[in-house]
Amino acid sequence: MSPDLLMLLVFAGSMLLGIPVAFALGLGGAAGIVAGLSPDMLATLGTNTYNSIAKYPLIAIPLFILTGLIFERAGVAASLVRFAQALIGPRHGGLGLVVVLVCLIMGGMSGSGPADAAAVAMVMLPSMTKAGYPKPFSAALIASASSTAILIPPSIALILYSIVVPGVDLRALFAAGLFPGLLAGMSLLLPVWWLAKRHGWEDPKHSERLDLKETFIKALPALFAPVLILGGLRSGLFTPTEAAVVAVTYGLIVGIFVYRQLSLKDIWVLLGEAGMVSGVVMIIISLAGIFAWAGTTLGTFTYLAQSMLSLSDQGWVLLLLIMVLVLLAGMLLDAISIYLIITPVLIPLMQHFGWNPVWFGILLAMNIAIGQFTPPVAINLMVTTQIAGIRLEKTFGWALFFMLTMLSALVLVMLFPGIALWLPEKLGYVVGPW
């Protein structure tokens, strides 16, 4: 058996046995090293593990995770919900439209879909249920709308992509994700309104009309967070990593002094939670370094890329196959694992066809976003159904419906790359092809 095949089989077999993906990656890489190189080369495990996480931009990941937790507990979601309700007004599907709008704004603070799903579900599920929305529909809608967080900057997924793919400007990725993220969110608006009107959910006659000025003033501190982060990046005032520090500091100020929802005890708890979540992420990244080094040294990734090229010499055909592959992976794995496992294989294909790496990164992120609420393993759905107190399988029909609507946004970005590339080009970031 070739070392390439052994490495992949050990990885796949470990996953099937239920071994966590981080350790499955490490075991697969170690098996490939022993079989294809030399047992003495196992001495490189420590170096590869350290080198995988000893990268300055990765500091932003635990900080943005902490940011998401702070804004979730600081009462930001509640203020944004009331402002969105005042903005949209009483109408059929109004609360559904509020969910999408709030998730898009929250995505500009945390960069994490599950964190946004939890924050919005806690606030919106009771009022949506009272207005007549079925819980499975509400849970599926919140899960799908919150998935746009990995597209709206700052995005933890895009930070990782900039690490895996050399030479990609993270600022360009952040800018490129804005319009596709908005497009993905907007793709949910019309179906939500149509379904609410058809089924008679949320009678406008019995809906409360909130004062727009009052709710806007209360939501202003929360609305300023994305402006601060993106404005600072655009002006060059701080780097993406420094933006994460600014976001944490601003979140603490808002939570303690403005909304007064955070105490010193809460901050200590949040630091512990952020540390645990970040630890899981960093373990995956570090052990994936072993897999990546073994795959690169053995030529496994090149071989897999050549095998995919043999399927078709047409770029669009292969791109469609890749999108299907990533969508299937998104149904089973988390975004971090997908980037670390699949991207090294796709880099040679990007170079071969001359695909723009920024545009391609956004396509991957959109696809992975859809996977976050698509069964069987749908992390956003797991969060919202747990809060709603319903079984996961009850949401599958609605989740598949929203998957189709967001796939339409993905197809548009595939056909018209300018949707993603116009803004970073306008801002003067490097978005050129290989």
From TrEMBL:
<keyword id="KW-0812">Transmembrane</keyword>
<keyword id="KW-0997">Cell inner membrane</keyword>
<feature type="transmembrane region" description="Helical">
    <location>
        <begin position="216"/>
        <end position="233"/>
    </location>
</feature>
<keyword id="KW-0472">Membrane</keyword>
<comment type="function">
    <text>Part of the tripartite ATP-independent periplasmic (TRAP) transport system.</text>
</comment>
<feature type="transmembrane region" description="Helical">
    <location>
        <begin position="173"/>
        <end position="196"/>
    </location>
</feature>
<feature type="transmembrane region" description="Helical">
    <location>
        <begin position="95"/>
        <end position="125"/>
    </location>
</feature>
<feature type="transmembrane region" description="Helical">
    <location>
        <begin position="395"/>
        <end position="423"/>
    </location>
</feature>
<dbReference type="InterPro" id="IPR010656">
    <property type="entry name" value="DctM"/>
</dbReference>
<feature type="transmembrane region" description="Helical">
    <location>
        <begin position="240"/>
        <end position="259"/>
    </location>
</feature>
<dbReference type="InterPro" id="IPR004681">
    <property type="entry name" value="TRAP_DctM"/>
</dbReference>
<feature type="transmembrane region" description="Helical">
    <location>
        <begin position="59"/>
        <end position="83"/>
    </location>
</feature>
<feature type="domain" description="TRAP C4-dicarboxylate transport system permease DctM subunit">
    <location>
        <begin position="9"/>
        <end position="419"/>
    </location>
</feature>
<keyword id="KW-0813">Transport</keyword>
<feature type="transmembrane region" description="Helical">
    <location>
        <begin position="316"/>
        <end position="342"/>
    </location>
</feature>
<dbReference type="Pfam" id="PF06808">
    <property type="entry name" value="DctM"/>
</dbReference>
<protein>
    <recommendedName>
        <fullName>TRAP transporter large permease protein</fullName>
    </recommendedName>
</protein>
<comment type="subunit">
    <text>The complex comprises the extracytoplasmic solute receptor protein and the two transmembrane proteins.</text>
</comment>
<comment type="similarity">
    <text>Belongs to the TRAP transporter large permease family.</text>
</comment>
<feature type="transmembrane region" description="Helical">
    <location>
        <begin position="279"/>
        <end position="304"/>
    </location>
</feature>
<feature type="transmembrane region" description="Helical">
    <location>
        <begin position="137"/>
        <end position="161"/>
    </location>
</feature>
<feature type="transmembrane region" description="Helical">
    <location>
        <begin position="362"/>
        <end position="383"/>
    </location>
</feature>
<keyword id="KW-1003">Cell membrane</keyword>
<keyword id="KW-1133">Transmembrane helix</keyword>
